[in-house]
Specification:
Elements lengths: L4 H4 L2 H5 L22 H13 L2
């Protein structure tokens, strides 16, 4: 499947005005899985969810 990130870059802002797209270097869509890097993903999600 081709990377559609450039085409979809503005989609979150149109659907959810306060959405933020994040790219974690070195991770694929499998990053959250146990054999990926779940701690990296968890840290970013925790920071995002607790930001005031």
């Amino acid at each position: 499947m081709a990377d559609t990130a450039p085409d979809d870059a503005q989609l979150p802002a149109r659907v959810l005005p306060h959405a933020e797209r994040m790219t974690l270097d070195g991770l694929t869509h499998e990053g959250p899985e146990d054999d990926g890097k779940p701690l990296v993903v968890a840290r970013v999600l925790r920071d995002f969810c607790t930001a005031a």
